[in-house]
């Protein structure tokens, strides 16, 4: 018996793609991890989370461990509403859904909006796990380039106009990461944000605004698309992975009350009430504003260290965008195939993510790589870039 013969056609098609996480290379012990897009051990508040869980169980006994969970789940929703409100995003209770991380939020939105006939537009390059999710639902993915001001909305408009003229299906959804984009670190200009919102009305699409890094701005936090939206077209996805702990899997979707119940319908019990109540208890006892400020200062220092090291060791061979927040620096090395170079870099002691994985058309990413300053410490960052510089010079 072949179990796969039971799978529906769409599932079989999706399973023909690269398996999830194919971009995550095995990193040898001792290698400097400039590939890892997650916080360093010391930046995860393990002790505080331990005390929050103990306090929760002391106060509520077994309650948080049941299906319905603790009343603190509602509290978490209020805490998130407050944070959204402080950034100009108003969300009533029926306009907000807590999810198991931003990833579940993206998957739920894709599940509700996309089928094999649907078209989705994404930035090129973009977050590779979102590409994996969209490809589970449709193969009709249009890539729109990105530059130092974010998604090139002028190009999007050209594509939309062409498709309309030729009677082709228009996108139902545009996926964008306007703040400190993964992988490029770029931020969408406010003119382009306005343009994108105007296009969404003209061409009648919804916008999935992935704001996973939005709070990690080294300066002013830019105004979100959601805060600028007057037509309920933006589904704003956020996460506490980058400011608290990714393993807790707490994210959300803020959007129209016409849309949120449909997402809740399919989410069912696929999130984690116990962890949500721990998060609420943690947020009760911590000053998140202050913690975020500390994280931003730390990441800003680490980013500067990475940029300075690139100037020192790779300025003749490579170019890059200087991010204003987030975790990543996107580096272009003309004449180098970064996928082929990776084994040499790993062997020499530094890991990065080759650019190809962030594109639908992987060839577009050949000369790019993503470096992250979130995980490695300052000394490792500098050493890692020095090693990378040597490997690049040997490769060229
Ligand atoms: C752009 C982007 N969106 C979403 C996520 C996933 O976030 P979460 O851990 O909340 O699922 C990440 C994580 O790296 C990301 O880079």
Please name the defining characteristics of this protein.
single chain, 396 residues, alpha/beta, Aspartate Aminotransferase, domain 1, Aspartate Aminotransferase, domain 2, 2 domains, eight-stranded mixed sheet, four-stranded antiparallel sheet, 42% helix, globular, binds pyridoxal-5'-phosphate, PyrdxlP-dep_Trfase, transaminase activity
Spell out the blueprint of helices and strands.
Layout (H helix, E strand, L loop, with lengths): L8 H7 L16 E2 L12 H15 L11 H15 L9 E5 H13 L6 E5 L3 H10 L3 E7 L2 E2 L1 H13 L7 E4 L13 H13 L3 E5 L14 H4 L5 E6 L10 E5 L5 H8 L5 H13 L2 H27 L4 E2 L7 E5 L5 H11 L1 E2 L1 E2 L13 E5 L5 H18 L1
Parallel strand pairs: 1-12, 3-4, 3-6, 6-7, 7-8
Antiparallel strand pairs: 2-9, 4-5, 8-9, 10-11, 11-14, 13-14
Helix pairs in contact: 2-10, 3-10, 4-5, 4-9, 11-13, 12-13
The protein binds pyridoxal-5'-phosphate (PLP).
Keywords: Aminotransferase, Pyridoxal phosphate, Transferase
Organism: Cytobacillus purgationiresistens
EC number: 2.6.1.-
């Amino acid at each position: 018996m072949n179990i796969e013969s039971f799978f529906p056609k769409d599932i079989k098609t999706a399973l023909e793609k690269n398996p999830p996480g194919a971009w995550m290379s095995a990193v040898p012990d001792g290698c400097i991890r400039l590939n890892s897009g997650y916080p360093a051990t010391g930046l995860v508040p393990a002790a505080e989370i331990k005390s929050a869980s103990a306090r929760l169980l002391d106060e509520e006994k077994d309650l948080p461990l049941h299906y319905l969970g603790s009343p603190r789940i509602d509290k978490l929703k209020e805490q998130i509403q407050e944070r959204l409100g402080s950034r100009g995003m108003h969300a009533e209770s029926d306009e907000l859904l807590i999810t198991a991380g931003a990833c579940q939020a993206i998957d739920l939105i894709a599940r509700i909006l996309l089928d094999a006939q649907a078209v989705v537009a994404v930035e090129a390059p973009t977050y590779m796990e979102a590409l994996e999710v969209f490809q589970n639902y449709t193969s009709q993915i249009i890539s729109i380039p990105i530059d130092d001001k974010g998604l090139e909305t002028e190009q999007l408009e050209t594509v939309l106009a062409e498709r309309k003229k030729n009677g082709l299906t228009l996108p139902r959804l545009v996926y964008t990461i306007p703040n400190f984009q993964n992988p490029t670190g770029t931020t969408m200009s406010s003119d382009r944000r306005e343009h994108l919102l105007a296009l969404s009305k003209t061409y009648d699409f919804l916008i999935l605004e992935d704001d996973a890094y939005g709070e990690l701005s080294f300066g002013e936090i830019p105004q979100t698309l959601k805060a600028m939206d007057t037509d309920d077209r933006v589904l704003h996805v956020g996460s506490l992975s980058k400011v608290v702990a990714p393993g807790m899997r707490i994210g959300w979707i803020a959007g129209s009350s016409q849309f949120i119940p449909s997402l809740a319908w399919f989410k069912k019990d696929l999130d984690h009430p116990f962890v949500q109540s721990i998060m609420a208890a943690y947020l009760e006892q911590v000053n998140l504003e202050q913690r975020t400020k500390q994280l931003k200062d730390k990441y800003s220092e680490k980013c500067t260290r990475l940029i300075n090291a690139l100037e020192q060791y790779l300025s003749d061979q490579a170019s890059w965008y200087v991010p204003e927040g987030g975790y990543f620096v996107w580096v272009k090395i003309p004449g180098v195939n970064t996928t082929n170079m990776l084994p040499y870099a790993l062997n020499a002691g530094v890991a990065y993510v080759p650019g190809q994985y962030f594109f639908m058309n992987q060839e577009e990413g050949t000369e790019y790589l993503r470096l992250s300053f979130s995980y490695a410490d300052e000394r490792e960052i500098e050493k890692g870039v020095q090693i990378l510089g040597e490997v690049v010079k040997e490769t060229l």
